[in-house]
Amino acid sequence: MTKIQRRHFERRLLEERADTLGLLNRATSEAASQDEQDRAGDLSQWPTHMADRGTDTIDEELAASNTTRLSSELAEIDAALERMHDKPERFGIDEVTGRPIPLQRLEIIPWARTCRQRANYR
Question: In sequence order, which ranges of 1-122 are alpha helices (DSSP H)?
Fold first, then answer.
C-alpha cells in the first residue's frame, strides 16, 4: 500500500470515527434524556396499554444493542488508527493469512483486519 493510499484510509477512518462517535453520543444523550424524564416523574411518556409496554421494551433493547455495536465499531476504528500509526507497513494486511486486504474491502470497512469475515475462515 502506498503512502497516498494510507493517508486516504486514515482520512476515511477519521471520518468513520467522527460519524460513529456522533451516533453514539446522540444515542447516549437520548437515553439520558429519557432517564431524566423518568426521574422527573413525567407520566406522559408511560405506556398505558400492555402492547405499548412490550414495544417500549423492544425499543430499549434495540437501542442498547445499537449502542453496544457502535461502541465496538468505535473501538475497532481506534485500533485501526493505532495499527496505522504504530506499523504503517502492516496496515491493510490480513492478520490471519498475511495477504493484502483488497482496497475495495478497506474502502467499505477501513478498519478491516482480515480479507473476509472470520466466520468464513476454517
Answer: 3-40, 50-86, 103-108
